[in-house]
Write the structure tokens for this entry.
Amino acid sequence: MATIKDIARLANVNIATVSRAFNRKEMVAPEAYNRIMKIAKELGYNPNPLAQGLKGKKMKMVGVLVPEIDHSIFAGIIKGIGNTARRKGYSVIVCNTGDDPEEEKRFVEKLTNKIVDGIICSAALPDSPYWEDLSNSGIPLVLAVRQGTKKVDSVAADYIRTCYDATSILLSRGCKSVYFINGPLTVKPYAQRNVGFVKAMREKGFSDAELRAFNLKDSTYSYSLECIESLIAQGKAFDGLVIASDAQTMAALRCLKQHGLRVPEDVKIIDCGGHGIVGMLETAVSVVEVPGEKIGEASMERVIELIESKDKLDPKTILVESELILREST
Amino acid sequence: MATIKDIARLANVNIATVSRAFNRKEMVAPEAYNRIMKIAKELGYNPNPLAQGLKGKKMKMVGVLVPEIDHSIFAGIIKGIGNTARRKGYSVIVCNTGDDPEEEKRFVEKLTNKIVDGIICSAALPDSPYWEDLSNSGIPLVLAVRQGTKKVDSVAADYIRTCYDATSILLSRGCKSVYFINGPLTVKPYAQRNVGFVKAMREKGFSDAELRAFNLKDSTYSYSLECIESLIAQGKAFDGLVIASDAQTMAALRCLKQHGLRVPEDVKIIDCGGHGIVGMLETAVSVVEVPGEKIGEASMERVIELIESKDKLDPKTILVESELILREST
DNA sequence: ATGAAAGCGCTAACAA
DNA sequence: TTGTTAGCGCTTTCAT
């Protein structure tokens, strides 16, 4: 690995001049500059980021925390983050926290040590105690998808709207008995979807007693399958299903098929907050699609903005638009 | 951020003693040790990895290159990598190369600069020129899923076997006309699947002229849909489909349904090289499942082994077993 | 426009 | 056992 020292020697200049050539080329004589650059290229020189970082320079690196990297929404977000990272010359360090707050904390501590300039977090909990510490400590933090109640920068989808729209579609299609299959309310995006569902139903004149929201304790395929199964077994009659996630949508489709219920003739289905895949199923499912990739891109743009800004910016929340895609399930 | 200097001052010892307390505690007096550690804890001290790295210490960081982070196989691999990374105290830097060799090269150059101790790569091309350079340069490289022809460490699924098994299942179920829907042969795992398909067919006495392998130029859902569609439109008669990937499986299912073909009565289907999701579809699909997460774990274990080993280890290829899961599509 | 030199936080060889 | 010191590669003030 060549260093500025090598270049300096070969170019007959001081190491400071070499450093200047890379950082403030206007301060070095053109001839010297060219000589230095030529030699640098020949040697395949690249500045050592460790040394630069030690000297206080930004490392152009941001840490990313996700609960489960293989859930489509997070994979999409990471992809988006990577897109703008590349565009802006940043690197990305990823950690899969497995939704474990302890792990999350350990990771943040590890990263905080100067090695990242900023952090993007899809947190385990609605609010984590270290968020504020972090943004006070000078290293910017932005929350992706999961907003905090505290004053922290965040990029989110408008899940209330998303689910409100989805529910409205079903109602406008003539559904009389719409059930809502949701995830745990402790997770903010699910809680928000619930709000949207309730809002849409009330507006159409349904009383609270008529609301059928099933906020399952987890949103996995297998557990959802079980629950929907038991719903049908109990003879509940529904002609519309608003569903919170892709896995749950697949579970519903499967259940329905096994019980000979046709989509959309017997039951209409819409996914509120899906990510692409449900359009590829045997029966193409309508969806209010949450643009993970866009969320990732926006999050990254925001951290970079925070990192590179001279003065502290006021925290803000960026809302990313969802897209309604109507397919054969409605 | 506290440094060893601060601790040294407060503990009335030299900075070297503090450093020793952290790195070779046996060389420092117990009383001093305790004093130092107590103060370190109070100050929330953490060693600055940049300084350590600059001094030549390993950064405990590995770079990961994937072509598309949101394809299930790669998401799984990254998850596996993260699993063992956490267990061993390593960090992971991820880059989505978008299957662009140029991008890949840039990224490797960037990483090579001392900041990572090793690289795991799911490469764009069957062979990249820098692979050998890299392993010669002293920073270990392991290939995940895509093996090279050159002598490089790699972790791979046995795709030949995988597809051989899948094809054999269909044949043993009495299929007379089995078609193979595959991806581009320029991508090694697809080429290997092709070998497995051909092998199984030949063993059952099919002549080369009877082999129906469709090695599509890309394996996306939409393109595959188009191709399978045209196959059916041309009136090709098949009663079995061996399919190389999840997206293609979904495409096939959809096509078949639209043409009133029933699975498995009219056509039997098996996915050779899927990753979980096809078991959750309306018609649960049999699959020879490639364990992405395990591949990730094994890759990471191998790089760490290479990183931490004193002497150069001989490159080896680790084969990860696939699992056959029979469901209703066969 | 360029050089000399200090120092970022840490480790390790050498001295005491 | 502990302290002194050099130096990793780089940036940046202060001289020249």
Q: What stands out?
A: Chain A touches chain B through 49 residues (CB under 8 Å). The mean pLDDT of chain A is 91. Chain A is about 45% helix and 15% strand. Residues 3-5, 15-16, 19-20, 23, 47-48, 50-57 of chain A lie near DNA strand D (CB under 10 Å from a C1').
